[in-house]
Amino acid sequence: MNGQKSGIRIQKALSDSGVMSRRKAEEAIRQKRVAVNSRLCEIGQKIDPNRDKVTLDGVAVELSRAKKTLYIMLNKPRGYVTTMSDEHGRRNVADLAADAPGRVYPAGRLDRNSEGLLLMTNDGDFANMIMHPGGHITKTYCVTLHSPITEEQAARLSVGVEIDGRDTLPATVLVLSQEPGRTVLQVTLSEGRNRQIRKMCEAVGLEAIRLKRTAIGPLKLGMLAPGKWRELTPAELTALRNASKKAAKKSGQARRKS
User: Fold this and answer.
1) Helix, strand, coil distribution of the chain in percent, nearest 5
2) Strand 208-216 to strand 115-121: parallel, antiparallel, or no bridges (unpaired)?
């Protein structure tokens, strides 16, 4: 440890530089993947971004001295992984946001075979707000099935089903269209678990063949073309922050009642 009493905490420096979120940085430090001046560092260690050399997995990291906070929405196409790089050479969202006015990283994720609205930022606090499990902002998806859905199946999805050993929270499920061989649902979740909608469908005997996220809280994907991005407006940022506060308050009230 370099013993500095002034400076910036290493996990915040990594987050502010757009390398990864603060939470991911703390995980990387615990996994002994981060070094300062060739010595493994500790969570909370303070560094001087202008003088200290930081490496992640042995690769030098360029730390920002000053940066503009960026908040963008991306329409992720199918076939892209939600990472900044991929050891298997697969296409990733960093390629799609390469022309952004600064380095940004995903605030949340979408599976490789899912598409739609993905937020990216270089603001670690904002990313944590979007991803925090205690106060999830609702997320809305358009889900295509290759078979009809019964009223019983829709009701089970709405009430909650068991996946990965525990029940899902109640969801809003609307049937948008139904024709032979194809059903389209709108599903709104208040939590975000790995491959949640696909697993929920499997639990009631359905298969989701296409999944597109269309909204995060009050923020809608709209007409943004696949593979394109745009910066969020101040009004959209305010609406997202208000939605997060409301979700956290509602979650806290529910815990107190239980």
Assistant:
1) 30, 30, 45
2) parallel
CB-CB neighbours of 9 under 10 Å: 17
Q: Are strands 71-76 and 105-106 parallel, antiparallel or unpaired?
A: unpaired
Strand partners, 81: 92
| Calpha distance 108→130 (Å, rounded) | 7
* Cβ-contact 47, 39 below 8 angstroms: no
82 touches 118 (CB < 8 A): yes
- The SS3 call for residue 13 is helix
Find the range with the poorest average confidence among 92-101, 127-136, 218-227: 127-136
- Three-state DSSP at 168 gives coil
- Assess contact for 20 and 121: CB atoms under 8 A: no
The predicted structure's pLDDT at residue 1: 38
pLDDT at 178 exceeding the cut of 50: yes
Contact indicator for 68, 101 with CB cutoff of 8 Å:
yes
Q: Which residues are catalytic?
A: 111
Task: Report DSSP state, residue 135.
Answer: G
Look at residue 29 and give its three-state secondary structure: helix
Answer whether residue 210 shows pLDDT above 50: yes
pTM attached to this predicted model? 0.74
